Predict the structure.
Amino acid sequence: MRPLRSTLALLALLAVGACKNSTEPGPKSVTTTTLKCVQPGGGTVGCDITIPTSASKVRITLTGHDCDAHGNIISISEPAAATLTNDACYETVGTFVEIPGPFSSAHVAMRVTSKLITNPPELHVTGDAPTWTVYFEDGGDQDFNDATLKIEAISAT
């Protein structure tokens, strides 16, 4: 009877240890996403934002956020490399980056690097020249309001 009790006690201790370890936060994988334009009917397709030839600069502004995850890096890779924020959920709304022209590339390409939560993160684009809105979803709740950005192609006047 004693060996059975000892075995059960050992199994109970192992089970408690396993449960404790399985609920502790561990390292999450990091993933990068690029722009997807929202299509009529609701689908999306990979895309870039085309800058009008009359634009003298492009401004990207963080207009809002509603998220809790740390470390969402929003960056621009075209027409020039720039980082808007290293922590989008905690960045000050109104933070912006301006990229002066003339532009060797005629488009804006963006990416977000974030921790993989439940689903892959996404960047959805709506609008048309000279102003677009980009909605970031970190993959947790699929509400597409984790960060909202305004992209403006500004022409010299």
Summary: The chain has one helix and eleven strands. Residues 30-155 form a domain with the Jelly Rolls fold (CATH 2.60.120.400).
